[in-house]
Structure prediction request, 859 residues.
Amino acid sequence: MTSKVVVVGAGVVGAACAFHAASAGLDVTVVDRGAVGAGTTSRGEGNVLLSDKEPGPELDLARLSRALWEEAGEELGSDSIELEAKGGLVVASTAEGLTALRGFALRQATAGVRTEPVEHVRDIEPHLAPGLPGGIHYPQDAQVQPVLAAAAMLHAAVARGARFHTGEIAAAVMGRGDRLTGVRTVAGDVLPADAVVNAAGTWGGEVGRRLGASIEVLPRRGFVLVTEPLPRMVRHKVYSADYVANVASSDAGLETSCVVEGTRGGTILIGASRERVGFDTTMNPAVVARLAAQACRLFPFLRGIHLIRTYRGFRPYCPDHLPVIGPDPRAPGVIHACGHEGAGIGLAPATGALVTAHLLGRSWRGADPAAHTGLLPDRFFTSGGTSK
Amino acid sequence: MSDPADLIVVGAGPAGMAAAVTALTGGLRVVLIDSGTAVGGQFWRHPPEHARSVIPTEDLHHGQREYHDLCETLSVHARKGQLDLRLNHHVWSAVREEDGFAVHTVDRREAPQEIAVVLRAPRLLVATGAYDRQLPFPGWDLPGVLTIGGLQALLKGGGVAAGSRVALGGTGPFLLPVATSLAARGVEVVAVCEAAHPRAWLRHPGPLLRNPGKWAEGAGYALTLVRHRIPLRPRTAIIRAEGGARVTSVRIASLASDGSPRPGRERRIEVDAVGVGWGFVPQLDLLITLGCALTNSADGNAVVAVDKGQRTTVPGLYAAGETCGVGGAVLAVGEGRLAAESVLADSGAAPVLGTKRLAAVRSAVAAQRAFARALALAHPIPPAWSSWLTDETTVCRCEEVTAGVIRTVRAEGACDHRQVKQLTRAGMGWCQGRMCGPAVHCLAAPKQAYHPTERLVATPVTLGALADLDR
Prediction:
């Protein structure tokens, strides 16, 4: 068993790892070069989704995570992290699209997701465009304010004895027998540790390399649009059925399929584009225009509403679009918890619980390492321990 | 204008007008874009054309001859088709493309209708000016409390005085023309509260002596203040506004050297309007998004870094006027000319100014920049200004976030205004932190220069106008 843990990254995933590990009684130090949730955590919409996931390892983790968000809400205060079980509504735009969507929902239902077919989508979302053939309501879909949630989980961890260290990781410190004894920061501080968790999000690839446990984590750019504040006009997370295809896609070009939802602040969020352009931060008005056009097709009233802000971030993804969670077989003591792509907010609590279970060597809060072997880093390596 | 443009100028204030005129004179084809209904910017703001004969404002202006000359040259080139003047066009984004720049605007001439218009040219000059820097204080959100820039805009743009008994406060020389303009329209200016100490100037006398024009301008204001019996109160600040439906009085306090109110040295003055300004914040949204390097200016702002020819660090992109550091209209005109000369040189066109005149403009610009720097150092934001705030004082007006909430998250570790925003929503509303950003920054990280948040959307634009672009 491990007692001292260093978590690299104070995004929502790192905060969840610290929260669960500290709750399990481990000695936790969180290291980040920046502020809490300043990276991808602050660049998304706060999706806690089951609706967009196919049956498989990610959906298994998402179902556990949905339950753990509920528990975290009870412990931290749902209001203070703006956790809201608003439900998702996936809308088809054509009859063929609806047939495909229903087939997809049926498979999800078999895997334990609650799905409710909706014939008249305007009954539950009155400002949708007329003439849409139907959709599926996913009552378990929820929303959370990611930075507030990350900060709250980190505070709770600190209340349980965890520490926060501002700094940037340089390398692992090895003791006798190639055993990990700590990590060194760029500033030269050495933080003692029996295990180090790589929860560095988009920088997970680089942090892995510095710890002697290279993994491939790539950025996928996304823009999110924010409107002026309005009275509540959109009640669910509403998106077109194309979104599901795009999330699972490996296409390098621009893909947009908009997700429209209201927030507690009154603004409407419109996401999200997907582009593989490296860490290019350039503004792209064509992408913003495409998202606006799609949102206006779903909700015609949006044509007269002002966009007041747009932001973009980089989703960290692994080549097979699944997160990598678990011990690295090449570097004892290193546990990866990254590559969540656009699902990091939703998957954070289960990731934290699963990492804690790996640290403890037993199940923790419903997370059983034996039930999530599909997410282990082993899948990327041959027996020689090198990247495939 | 049917042929492609050589240069787009964003902002038709003194810098943008001067730049456009120089570039046009040099034979370039220019697009000049402004969100206003007329050229002139804030400094040369005038009533709408059709109302000018009934609302006289000439006496409120400085440099009117320059303004009329620039207007006349612009009109000549517009008639010839060499200038494409786009008024009522709001620029919401500008991006680099392979052959130059695409400037994304919405045409609001038929408001509320908005039409997306994209303009392109190989070179871009950004002269978007600056706006009043505000510091919150108890009661600053009462109706009747305005920025001094707002008071001046009402006077110059519509001949409207915001009140009949007005107190002004803040710091910097802009308090003086606003006081004299108000007095010229019969307003009783009951106090001009200048937070700085008059002796602060003695620490940097050089730039003052080298700019005799400014010296004379200051003396002119001083005479007007005396003539109208306007009390100028140094080392004093408006620390509270009071009232019900609108402001009815202010509390002014004598300040200690750190800017905190001296105990027992407060007094109450009855007013029906208040104007406050703590210098200006450059409008950098387009430049930051385009990736220009910034630098720190003596007034605590970040400004765009330019070379001696007003070139930014982005090839083909130039900046002039307040975006390069707040320094007033005369400096802005000089910088606009220099920027346009660089555009001409970089385009392979012949210069407009001869070597001697160019050297004269350069040396005048250098002297005025030194003066602006001395001005900024003599008129700092009082370090202890936040001691005026109670925990209940609203800091972010759009999202109604109080000083108490910001102090709490700061005590919990929030170390910059971006993080304060993420945790409290301060700066997430309609103005996107343009008003409260500097104040939140001062509360969160008082020892660092203010670097505004990147705003990829420089002005609100309807989703309908954006959607029409996607065709």
Summary: The CA atoms of residues 381 and 388 of chain A lie 6 Å apart.
